[in-house]
Amino acid sequence: MEYIYGKVALVVGASSGMGKACAEYLKKHGYIVYGTSRKAIFPDSLTKNREGTIQMIPLDVTQEKSIKEAIDYIVKNEGQINILLNCAGYALGGAVEDISNDEAHEIFDTNFFGMMSVIRHVLPIMRKQNKGLIVNISSVAGFIALPFQSMYSATKYAVEAMTECLRMEVKPFGIKVSIIEPGDIKTNFTSSRKTAKAALINPAYKERHKKAVETMIKDELNGPGPQIVVKAFAKILNSKNPPVRIVVGFKYKCVALLKRILPSRVVEHVLEKIY
Length: 275
Ligand SMILES: NC(=O)c1ccc[n+]([C@@H]2O[C@H](COP(=O)([O-])OP(=O)(O)OC[C@H]3O[C@@H](n4cnc5c(N)ncnc54)[C@H](OP(=O)(O)O)[C@@H]3O)[C@@H](O)[C@H]2O)c1
Hints:
Elements: E1 8-12, H1 17-28, E2 32-37, E3 53-58, H2 64-78, E4 83-86, E5 92-93, H3 101-129, E6 132-137, H4 150-170, E7 175-181, H5 189-192, E8 194-195, H6 206-221, H7 227-237, E9 245-247, H8 250-261, H9 264-274
Parallel strand pairs: 1-2, 1-4, 2-3, 4-6, 5-8, 6-7, 7-9
Helix pairs in contact: 1-7, 2-3, 3-4
Bound molecules: NADP nicotinamide-adenine-dinucleotide phosphate (NAP).
Residues 13-19, 37-39, 59-62, 87-90, 110, 114, 137, 139, 182, 184-185, 187-189, 192, 220 line the site of NADP nicotinamide-adenine-dinucleotide phosphate (NAP).
């Protein structure tokens, strides 16, 4: 196996779902993997030969101090970070009118600003190495905004924009950047979904919100497991010139194409019918 970007990988949000599955893939292929969870603690000591291992360490993307500590820890032990996979994220349900500023800020702090902070901490290390790979998990919701998921979609649209810019900015430093856009995947994402407080009581949207989220939950629970995302990640990892984005799954590739070619009103009509 060729380690195009090097052997040291940081997977942010590796305690479950896509992050965990990708961390396992990296481990299986001999990488030195640092996975993160808010619940993890720094180990007392590390094994000497860390190739093909996953070391779980604490990291909360909403806390600058926590990000710095995690990254300093890896650099202290490995002297480098070659691959960064950003998976931390959750969904928030509710109509725009029902989402408080605090709830909106909270989801942006995790899904967008958290990702951005981690990247900001890792970039100086990758620039020094003159190589690196950053993969950001976005979503199909990053190019199709779903009703009653406005803030989630907004965070993912923001991830898309930031990632596209970043990709061009860091190219001269040998750092490659890609986006993965999964559709519905069966993970802890469903049980971690939050609901805006007002959405539980405001009769104006209550029934439609409930119906839309029930449809999303059903699709997630009937979706494929995270291995399908691992495939997309592996494709990027093993490419010297990775694509800007990979939409995960044939169905969602078709959805992406239709979104591009159909008039916006038609797309809206279809989404209203589904949700
Ligand atoms: N599942 C889907 O249908 C789907 C579809 C499209 C996109 N996505 C995106 O895929 C990514 C991964 O989600 P998943 O489906 O694998 O869900 P998951 O199983 O719930 O995993 C989410 C991960 O994010 C971590 N996390 C959450 N908040 C964090 C924070 N503040 N700081 C650090 N880590 C945090 C969690 O770790 P701890 O709780 O242990 O800290 C966990 O490891 C997310 O960005 C999600 O938006 C999911």
